[in-house]
Amino acid sequence: MLNFAGCTDHEFPGGSTPTFGDIGVLSSGVGDEHLDELLSTRGLLRFAGKRGLDLERIEDLWLQPHTEAPHAEVLQAFTTAIVTAVSVVAVTLDPAPVYFVGRLRPLVDVVLPEVRERLDQSLPAVPEIRTGPHQIGLSTARGAVCACLSIAQERLRGAVLGARHQARLTERSAPAF
After folding, report:
1. d(CA 138, CA 5)
2. In the structure, what pLDDT confidence band is assigned to residue 107 with cuts at 50, 70 and 90?
3. Banded pLDDT at 25 (limits 50, 70, 90)
4. What is the DSSP letter of 154?
5. What is the pLDDT of residues 119-175, one digit of tens each?
6. CB atoms closer than 10 angstroms to residue 15
7. Which segments within 11-127 are labelled E, that is strand?
8. Residue 43 main-chain phi, psi, to 5 deg
9. Residues near 64 by beta carbon (within 8 Å), at least 6 away in sequence
10. Mean pLDDT along residues 42-48
């Protein structure tokens, strides 16, 4: 299932219906496929099978070498779906970063350069796209909190290191009496 969550001012935004955040029902930009069908493991396996790519498990998409045309077609469809999903989130929530987590994260890493290039061509401001480790059992909201905590930790670390560096520079330039 494809979903998104965000955190603004220490609150998770919610909608008046369960439809809020369920971007998986939207068109992927690839034929009649919905985002759920291309950005979920089960759906992507079905899509690959329809294209003649016989995979035992989803990990074979990025762990096994492929030279056949159906593999390239599946990767292109997956890339288009990622571009569509990020575009929807970007124009809806205007986030600084977008995190992808889940079993398909390694495949996101494979297509990320092309995703960024295509987003640069279509959006006036592209959010930073990051991937995070898959942790079984984490809900979308909890995954969003973990991503936010990671960002906060990085910013805090940067601020502390910056302050230390500034203090050292000040100590060195202080006149000795």
Report:
1. 12
2. very high
3. confident
4. H
5. 999 999 999 888 876 666 655 556 666 666 776 788 788 888 888 878 777 776 655
6. 9
7. 97-100
8. -65, -40
9. none
10. 93
> How is residue 121 written in tokens?
């061509």
Q: Which amino acid is at 105?
A: R
How far is Cα of residue 97 from the mean position of the Cα atoms in its chain? 8
Residue with tokens 């990051």: 130
Tell me the two tokens of residue 114.
């092309």
Cα 136 off chain centre by: 17
CB distance 86 to 125 below 8 Å: no
What pTM was computed for the model?
A: 0.74
Q: What Rg value do the Cα atoms of the chain yield, rounded?
A: 20
* Contact by Cβ (8 Å): 72, 90: no
Q: Which residues contact 169 (CB under 8 A, 6 or more apart)?
A: none
Average of per-residue pLDDT across 24-29: 84
Q: CA torsion 61→83→114→106, rounded to 10°?
A: -30
Q: Give the tokens for residue 49.
A: 């099978």
